């Protein structure tokens, strides 16, 4: 891969026709709106949240939930995904690209980072704040990623699976588009085994439309999909799970 136009490179990877709108490729079309039945999902489709997400919303909320800073998160992600040896990265539910841009910069020479989301306000903000010669943003539905099997060397989703109506289907799609030898990583909610704490977290999260996952959900999903080198780290109410596809 050479340092060509990232939009052209990404369009060549898509299995669905896309229109370039507001700087991102859209496979859904202007009339298709992101589903937002819960408070949390409505927030992620808000232009205001898209504006403050990277500088205020995410750093504060995720540090509170895990005690890990954004910079430390990005370094952990780059290490777990072995980005120095990867050429193509897919960042699912990328939001305003606050991870897509920095992680794309860690790819091997000529690498391409694709940020994928269903929210138009988030992607518009990603184009404004986190566009680089090595990034492109795509609007679509993560339950049916518009890419062929084994397209990406690294696939990630940080801080979004607990918002989605079908998180396990999305995770399975992420595994599908991961190339043999590639690595996957997710950062998502974590509910400890201790019942009183689990009950409090689960009940509170349900009120705003979030799903709390236990320690087994994604470890078991990755193992069932044949992934290896599965590593899980839990901090407070968040868990980071990474794995490799054999090959």
Automatic annotation (TrEMBL):
CDD domains: AdoMet_MTases. Residues 90-185 form the Methyltransferase type domain. It holds the Pfam family Methyltransf_11. The keyword Chloroplast does not apply. Its EC number is 2.1.1.-. GO terms for biological process: methylation. The keyword Methyltransferase applies. InterPro entries: Methyltransf_11 (IPR013216), SAM-dependent_MTases_sf (IPR029063). Keywords: Methyltransferase, Transferase. GO terms for molecular function: methyltransferase activity. PANTHER family: 2-METHOXY-6-POLYPRENYL-1,4-BENZOQUINOL METHYLASE, MITOCHONDRIAL, METHYLTRANSFERASE. This is Class I SAM-dependent methyltransferase. It comes from Mycobacterium servetii.
């Amino acid at each position: 891969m050479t340092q060509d136009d990232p939009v052209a490179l990404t369009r060549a990877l898509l299995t669905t026709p896309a229109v370039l709108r507001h700087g991102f490729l859209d496979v859904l079309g202007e009339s298709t709106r992101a589903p937002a039945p819960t408070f949390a999902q409505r927030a992620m489709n808000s232009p205001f949240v898209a504006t403050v997400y990277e500088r205020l919303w995410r750093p504060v909320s995720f540090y509170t939930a895990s005690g890990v800073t954004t910079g430390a998160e990005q370094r952990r992600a780059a290490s777990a995904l072995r980005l120095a040896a990867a050429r193509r990265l897919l960042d699912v539910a990328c939001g305003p690209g606050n991870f897509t841009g920095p992680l794309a910069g860690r790819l091997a020479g000529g690498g391409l980072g694709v940020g994928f989301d269903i929210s138009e306000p988030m992607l518009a903000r990603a184009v404004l704040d986190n566009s680089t010669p090595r990034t492109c943003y795509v609007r679509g539905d993560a339950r049916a990623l518009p890419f062929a099997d084994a397209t990406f060397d690294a696939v990630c989703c940080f801080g979004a699976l607990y918002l989605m109506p079908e998180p396990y289907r999305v995770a399975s799609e992420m595994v599908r588009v991961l190339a043999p030898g590639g690595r996957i990583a997710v950062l998502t909610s974590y509910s400890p085994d201790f019942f009183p704490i689990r009950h409090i977290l689960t009940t509170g999260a349900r009120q705003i439309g979030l799903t709390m996952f236990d320690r087994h959900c994604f470890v078991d999903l990755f193992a069932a999909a044949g992934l290896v080198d599965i590593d899980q780290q839990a901090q407070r109410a968040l868990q980071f799970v990474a794995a490799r596809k054999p090959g």
